[in-house]
Each structure stands twice: as structure tokens, then as C-alpha cells.
Amino acid sequence: MRPAFSVLFLTTLIGAGQGLLIALVCGQLFLVVGTGDASLSGGFYAMGSLLALVLLALGLLASFFHLANPTRAWRAATQWRTSWLSREVIALPAVMGMAVLYGGLHALGWDGALMHFANGKSLDLTMAVGFVTVLACLALFLCTGMIYACVKFIREWHSVWTVINYTLMGLASGFVLAAAYAASLGAVVTGLYAGTALVLIVLALAGRAVSLWRNARLKPLATLKGAIGAPHQNIRQVTQGFNGKSFNTKEFFHGKSPETVRMLTTFFLACGFAAPFVLVALGMGSAAVLWLAVMVQYVGLLAERWVFFAQGNHVQNLYYQRKA
Amino acid sequence: MANEKQLALVIDLNVCVGCHACVTSCKEWNTSGWAGPLPDQDAYGADPNGVFFNRVQTFECGTFPNTETVHFPKSCLHCEDPPCVPVCPTGASYKRESDGIVLVDYDKCIGCKYCSWNCPYGAREFDEVTGVMKKCTLCVDRITDETLPPDRRKPACVLACPPGARLFGDIKDPESEVSKAIRDNGGYQLMPEAGTNPANHYLPRRKTPSVVHEDQLQRADNPLSREAEPPKFGGPTIDDASQW
């Protein structure tokens, strides 16, 4: 498949935004249930939510560049009963709305206790809204992953690992970003975020490695025998019927050499996983190193998403093998 | 989605000669009709690119010298379980309940191209000029046009096909021409493993055997002498006898 940069930016930016929101709520929960007296100001969560909101909004903006008729984009919310794409169109603004609500409540300090527990702890309004925010983020991860995982004619994508990897990579980038953000403000949760980020980077790398391993061993869904229905074992295309280009020869082929894909695979494994792991592990607490990790990881994940698209080999390509 | 009526094409690969008349007549009819335009970019330049609803491809089957050439016209198959329809986020892609034709509502399409990812046959072609997805409509504007004589209410490709390789009709009607053709000639669907249940069917290549016996290779009445010197006659011929 041809990697569309609009979609590369959309999926990586909203993944980081969702991961950051989940990290913020995890940090709040960690401090609430913890035994210490440490706490963070509402401003910390509000600013963090704003940062996540900016990422989500940039992703949404990028998605509009994927549409040929963006003025009709509102229609894309109508078919949520059958289409994962439609569900994502609903879930993304929902997550943005939750980010506004969560950050806004923290900023305004509207944090009344909803429930009191026997151990003296309480469920505050912001915490409850935070839980709903996490659920919305997870739902969006599911929708984004399923858009690709439900395309059964691209075998490389048609797997549960697509959903798992989108989620894990989004969480990993979100927690690295949260660690950099917390370190800049000297917040007590920096260590929590950095430590969790290390675990998530390893998990995401493992998940991506499984999908790379799976892709290398895929059997094709169909062969030319079934594609044209000729009862022969040995079929070759003489011509696809035209010498120029068509949508079918542009959208479904990335046009780069296998070496480029291999090189970028190595690049994203190094830049999207290994380098940020080393930077977060060695630079714990140093805001500058953590921000460097954020940037290196983002570039690496963009390359990862490019490879994800380029490795998708659509069944229709059987019909477009030779010009003449 | 079980329609009572399902219009479809039946394409006889044993008859198709690969002349592309269906391709050009389709483009001609549809670019100026209801489903149009089918724009081309750089049509006369070095790097042309254009929208077609129908393509004729050519394949070589078997191993030399036992090969055969198969000309293979490919357009939307109007699947009975069209995977392109439920994935559309706007509902622009739909299957008509009245006759099973899969269509795109150009006024609702946002041009996200997601339907094309979900078609295993590459039947949909995106129009970059108007920014909507386009595809074969079975010439829905022709076949429903009651101002045309009944025998002309057929898709442009069917009417154009010089050897008559393309049949059009309702595959749910067991007495229709297409149903009989599928039944009698081993009509099959493309890529059944895709689970799309295509409405369009293809009729396979058929062998037409002719047995040649040894004695047929030698003409028993072959007057080999005809090529040689004419026989010399010593005596008077019948001509001599008549020319007195």
C-alpha cells in the first residue's frame, strides 16, 4: 500500500495524545492511592491535557488532508453501526472532548469528592472523569487499529496484532512524552512515567516484532488461479490492459525498493524503540534528554507507520503485475 | 443481503478476443452520462492516468509450448456480499435492494478511499478531479431508460462486444439467459475464497477437440502427378480428332 502522510501523522499524533492522557490519569491515580502525601497541582493536569488536546487536534487536522471532499466529513459519523472508520470519526472528537473536560475540571479546581471510602480516600470528580477519559482513549485505540485489522484483503494488517501494536506504540509514545513533560515541571511522577515508558517500549517492540515475524511467513490469500479462475498452475500476466497509470497502480503500490523497506524497518526498530529506551533509561529525570527521546521516538514511529503501510500487500495487486 | 433480483454480467472467456471494445464503449458512455465524468490526466502526455470502469487484461496460462492466452475483462462484480459497502463511513457506497447493483452516491462520498481497500478485485477507481470514488454502474442509466427500445436497455459494454462474449441479465431468475449460461457452461465466480459472492460470473475456456486420423493427413485422391510434367501422348488426341 502507498503510505499516505496524512494517515501517518494522524495515527502517530493521536496515539501519543491518547497515551499522554492515559499517563496523566495513571499519575493522578498513583498519587491518590499512594501512601505518601505528594500531590500535583491541577495546573499540571490541565497543561498536560492541553498538550494532549493539541496533539489530537493536529492528528484530526492531518486526517482532513486524507479526504478529497473534507467539507462533507461530518457525514463520516453516520455509519457507526458497520464501519470502524465511522466509529473512529466519533471516538476522536469524544476523546478530545474528554481531554477538555478532564483538563478543564483540573484547571478550574472543580474537584469535589463523589464517594468516600473506609480508608479515608475518596473518589474525586476529576478522577472519575479521568477514568472515563481512559476508556474513551482505549476505545479510540481499538477503532484506529480495527480500521486496518478488519481489511481482510491485506493479510499483513488482518490480525489482532495490528490493534495491539497501535495501542502499545501509542501508549509508549504517550508515556515518554508524559515523562518529558513531568520532568520539565519537576513533578514527582517523572520516575513513574519514565519507568512505565520503559516497560511499554519493550512491550511495543515485542508486539511489533511478532507482527514482523508473522508478515514474513504469510501465505497469500489468493492466487492468479482463483483471481481469473483459469484451471492452470502456471499463469502469468501478459498485460494489465493499459500502459499508463490508474488508481489501482498508484494507491496499492508504495513504489520503493525492498531495500528501502528493509532499511526503514531497521531504522524504526533503532529509532522508535532502541534509542528512546536508552535515552529514557539513562536520562531519567533530565528533561532535555527526555524531550530528545520524545522527538527521536516520534520520528521512529513515523517510519514504523510508513513500513506498516508499505508492507501491506493488497490482493488486488494480483491483477496489476505487468504493463505490457 | 439476499436480493430477489440481482442484475449481473456473464462474460464468456471462450469468446472474448481481447479487443477492448467494451473498455472504450464503457468509457464513452459513462464519461458523458449519469456516472461521469471519467477524467483522464495527461492523456496525451508521457505519464497518462485515468479512470475506467472496465479493463481487459491478458494472461498466459500453462507452460510453453502448451500455453493458452486468456483475455480477461474485469469490472465491478456487484457482489451479493459486497465488502466495500459496510466499511463506507458515510453510506455513500450502497447496494440497491431493487436489483442488487452496487453504486456510489457521489454527493455523499468524502473520498477517503477506504472502500477500495476492501475490494479484492481492484474494481473501484478513484476520480482525483472530483474527489469521489467511481465504479461500474452496470450502466444503470441505460438499463432503466424506458425511452430506449427494450433490446437496447443493456450495458454499453454488452452492446459493444463484437463476438458477443458478454451477457447481461438477472442471475436470480432461473429462466434468464445469464442463469442458463451459468448453468449450462460451468459459470464460475472470481476468487471465491474472498467470501464476496460476486454476482458477475465468468464462463470458462472450453476445449474444442478435433480428432485427426492418419489417413486424413494423406489425401487418397491427391494427384501427385498434377505437379509433374504432363503426360506425353504419342497418338492423336481427342482434340486432334475434333479439329478437322
Provide a descriptive summary of the structure in words.
The complex is a heterodimer of chains A (324) and B (244). Chain A has helices at residues 5-33, 42-64, 84-108, 125-149, 160-184, 190-216, 224-228, 247-251, 258-282, 287-311; strands spanning 113-116, 122-124, 235-239. With 324 residues, chain A is mainly alpha-helical. Chain A has a single domain (5-228, 242-319), classed as Up-down Bundle (Formate dehydrogenase/DMSO reductase fold), CATH 1.20.1630.10. In chain A, helix 1 packs across helix 5 (160-184), helix 1 packs across helix 10 and helix 3 packs antiparallel against helix 4. Chain A is elongated. Chain B has a domain at 7-77 and 137-203: 2-Layer Sandwich (Alpha-Beta Plaits), CATH 3.30.70.20. Chain B contains seven helices and eleven strands. In chain B, a hairpin with a 7-residue loop joins strand 2 and strand 3 (49-50). Chain B starts with 6 loop residues before the first strand and ends with a helix. In chain B, 43% of the residues are buried. The interface between A and B is large, with 59 and 60 residues.
